Amino acid sequence: PAEIVVAPRGQWISKPMAVRPLARYRLTFRAKAVGGPTLESDPEVWGGFYDVQRVSRGLFLPRWELRFRTASGQPVKGWGILYPYWNSVLSGAWRPYVDVFYAPPGAERLEVVYLSPDARTTLRATAPALAAEAGDTVNVNPDFSLGRYCHAGYGMAGFGSSVQMLPKPDGGGFFLRVATWCNMDPVPVTAGRRYRVAMRLRPDTFA
Fold first, then answer.
1. Tens digits of per-residue pLDDT, 50-82?
2. β strands within the chain, DSSP E
3. For the chain, does the N or the C end have fewer beta carbons within 10 angstroms?
């Protein structure tokens, strides 16, 4: 596929893609960061990735954004996390990236934006591919089965420096170790319908 090159402090915006309000989608692409800090060149990047203050501390990782619009082109506010710091390209090697999400109410168009806010970093990526997704659960990516670099479905985590993504012993995905708190993205529910919420904890990871 054709390669998209985003220069330092630049951005690229896709053509609008059709979506349905409250429908669930999977976005996929491949990308790598060139010239700036990466997982391979700077061991601090992985810890900094979980730091909610990383921008104020000077770590400007390349990233992607989802911009929703009405059919007439008016912006629609997404209902995901307030600051999408999970949506970052961390590696200097080509890796697949996945984002699973619900389109917010009123959204009928989606623009995918690639950004490289760092003055040293060039972002290289393939064009984003969008597909509808059914999902086995209402919430997105509950077992982190989409991979270590995909945090789709999860919101903020308190005190990011103590957060770690660790592999499950059985090899079936990952779990997030959090010292204080974390939350998930909101998901659509139907009034009057019953839902089951289940959580699994690993007590051997407690401090």
1. 776 777 777 889 999 999 999 999 999 766 655
2. 3-6, 10-13, 17-18, 24-34, 63-69, 75-76, 95-102, 109-116, 122-126, 129-132, 154-157, 164-167, 174-177, 182-184
3. C
Query: 0.85 exceeded by the pTM?
Result: yes
- The pLDDT tens digits for 149-191 are 788 888 776 655 567 788 887 777 788 877 777 788 888 889 9
On whether the CB atoms of residues 90 and 97 are closer than 8 A, the answer is: no
Helix (H, G, I), strand (E, B) or coil at 203: helix
Nearest Cα neighbor of 50 from 207, 185, 155, 203 is 155
Q: Is 197 exposed, middle or buried (0-12, 13-18, 19+ CB in 10 A)?
A: exposed
Contact 127, 29 (CB under 8 A): yes
Residues comprising the chain, all counted: 207
